Amino acid sequence: MSEKKETQEKETRKEVVLKVSDMDPKFKYEITKLPGAEKVMLCFQCGTCTADCPIARFSDFYRPRKLIRMIQLGLKNKLLSNDIIWLCSTCFTCIDHCPQDVGIANIVRALRHLTVERETMPVVYKELASNILKTGYAYVIPRLRLKKREEMELPSLPKANLENLAKLFDVTGLSKMLERVGT
Amino acid sequence: MPESKYLIFLGCVIPYRISSYEISSRKVLNKVGVELVEMPEFNCCGFPLDPINHDMMLTLAARNLCLAEQQNLNIMTLCNGCFGILNHVNKELNEERKIREKVNGYLKEIGMEFKGTTTVKHLIHVLAEDIGLEKIKEAIRKPLNPLRVAQHIGCHVVRPAKYVGFDDPENPTVLKNLIIVTGAECLSYMDETECCGAPIIGVDDKIPLQLAREKLSHIRAVGAQALITVCPFCHMIYDLNQPRIERTFNEKFGIPVLHYPQLLGLAMGFSPDELAFKQLRVDASKIVNNQLCREKKEV
């Protein structure tokens, strides 16, 4: 991780030399097939997304404009081994402000999906998914909390239909993915 | 479908740790004549899984929408995230035949089918559109002036504009007007529409804390006595995490963060206990005591 950070820091400070051998010219077409990423080639690099991005204000590395440029250049391996793509907070400001209607946040989501296909994702998402599979909710709600609802005169929470949820996890391929993918 | 009857979609965060929002919402909605029906067998809206599996997000959301269709009722959410996802998926499945067919293929496994007969609204849509400011005004017993507050509307209740089509994301006024109707003043501040950063707190907690610190500083700079939110995630960042922000940056804020229905409830004459003020992390008794003092003076 620290090594990665170092190279990231170097990249922000110095000019980066790109090797043609690092570029996959087909990558931009590959990602276009994913939902929400259809318009990646429409980006003309105006930088509105980065200028308006709340995360970019406080992160030294997260730059949506740069991510899109890297896709256009075909820097596939660099993009899909990069923790930065998990920093988008999905506020959708970039989607609303983009003059080309590129749908930046959706493209970042597509990058995440491709990363997951490469069998890695942040541990938090694995936890959220397994919580939903086990309880129907994204968080495991403690029993005490459920009991407390009575004291607070709130109606009891309905039991989730776990059987149906398990089926949906199977048919969408999420169950298999969770078994396969590390964190 | 009756306009003032909704299936309440609680989502996960509210029952997990933000009960004060649910308690106060139920109180004020009851007061203005909105009937709430509990949603049977609901599951997570799907939002947390979108980053790793888009199909599963669509399917989880669609399953919730189908439950509402079966009840022949519209959905009201309290959470911005749940609203954003359910509303988006509802519209997308209605508009895009291919996606609908794919999702219905998944839902077939559990004997469900998305038909597109329900509507999704957020608490503030219901209050502003169905009930209306006039009717809310009639229910005000103890106007909150001279209380000065600031709003934080949160992202998913207004963005992406293409799917939400409600209020102006650049200059949101719906919540502002709902605040003004309580008698409180709603102050403008720098970067009012900035995201709270909550969705990435599991990946990187430094950035959301920095964002929150900046927001709290801007709010303090204009002299607001409290921050008003309408989303459990945003509330968690500014209220639950405020002591942590203070520790991290060695800076004192002490800005109470109220759920909008708590503010409205106070103006309607509910007691702070009835509105679960005690469950707030940042002590809000200053505001309540000011109100009580003022009432005594008037008597």
Low-confidence stretches of chain B: none
CATH architecture assignment of the largest domain in chain A: Orthogonal Bundle
CATH class of the largest domain in chain B: Alpha Beta
Q: Remind me, CATH topology of the largest domain in chain A?
A: Fumarate Reductase Iron-sulfur Protein, Chain B, domain 2
Number of strands of chain B: 8
Strand order of the largest sheet of chain B: 2-1-3-4
How many helices of chain A?
12
Q: What is the radius of gyration of chain A computed over CA atoms, rounded to a whole number of angstroms? A: 20 Å
Structural class of chain A: mainly alpha
Quaternary structure of the protein:
heterodimer
Q: In the CATH scheme, what's the topology name of the largest domain in chain B? A: Rossmann fold
CATH superfamily label of the largest domain in chain A: Alpha-helical ferredoxin
What does this structure look like?
The complex is a heterodimer of chains A (183) and B (299). With 183 residues, chain A is mostly helical. Chain A is 55% helix and 0% strand. Chain B folds into 2 domains: 5-123, Glutathione S-transferase Yfyf (Class Pi), Chain A, domain 2; 139-298, Rossmann fold, CATH 3.40.50.11810. Chain B is built from 14 helices and 8 strands. Chain B has helices spanning 13-17, 19-31, 54-71, 80-95, 97-108, 123-131, 133-138, 161-164, 174-180, 206-221, 232-240, 242-249, 260-268, 285-298; strands at residues 5-9, 35-38, 74-77, 120-122, 148-152, 185-187, 226-229, 257-259. The longest helix of chain B is centred in the N-terminal third of the chain and has 18 residues, at 54-71. The model of chain B has no long low-confidence stretch (mean pLDDT 95).
